[in-house]
Fold this protein.
Amino acid sequence: MFVTRFAPSPTGPLHLGHAYSALLAHDMAMAAGGIFLLRIEDIDQERARPEWEAQIYDDLHWLGLDWAHPPMRQSQRQSAYVAALDDLWDRHLLFPCACSRRDLLLSGQAPQEGAEAVHDACHRKCTPQPGGVPYPPRVQGQHLRLDMRNALALCKHHNVAGIDDQHGLSFQETGPTHRGTVFTARSAYATDIADVVIARRDIATSYHLSVVVDDAAQGITHVVRGEDLFEATRIHVLLQKLLHLPTPIYHHHRLIRDEAGKRLAKRDDARALAKYRAEGATPTDIRRLVGLDHG
Ligand code: GLU
């Protein structure tokens, strides 16, 4: 079975990059006789807008896409995130952290190419507290970080996927750049990824937690998304192991870039689908523009 999804955030207009991602995921699902689903990633209610969500439905329908079930909306999934956090917390896999909003914004969102590097000051300031802290810390204005040392110890204890210094966790990748089995060594989790933010104080979840919980809830077997999210997949695979959720197959596709070679961003209104539509472009023109005109 092939079940995939397109998961836009309603924080701006869809542009050519989104069109490519949605069309590719849809085409792959149809070619495999599978299912295409939609998920609205609106956990950040300060940035999400109903008008952008409405525009997403309108643009996707205009492109000729339809989805098998009503869209999943992350703003309605808080209880599922709380359940996952409770589960992790009960097993001493989280610890509270009092870092600044700026640090957390950088480390708790989808790490798109071109974004500033994650500020690691809070990694140094916030170390896990032995003995635990009263639960739930998030109502006390704290963020929650993964206790990577405990997480790796747990993986090792349960002999998860043979995690060791040579190998680590793996996932299957079918995208053009990293095709094959992708390993993340135990040492990379310990040093490069470390105590990643799992729940931001302001939204009580994070991109990483929500995407993992919701991919499982939607029964996603194949994740099709931009190459800028490739590295984040290492975190997602670990969270899947810790939460006993299946790991889908991943396909990280090339990014649509502007003339200067920069990844398109929400602020690139010049390439908004709505603008092309207003200028009289057809869905076939959009397919051609993103290099999907072969059939
Ligand atoms: N919501 C994310 C974005 O707008 C995509 C997340 C994903 O596909 O995993 O880029």
Q: What stands out?
A: The chain has a mean pLDDT of 87. Residues 59 and 274 are 7 Å apart (CA to CA). Residues 78-256 form a domain with the Rossmann fold fold (CATH 3.40.50.620). The first helix runs from residue 16 to 31.
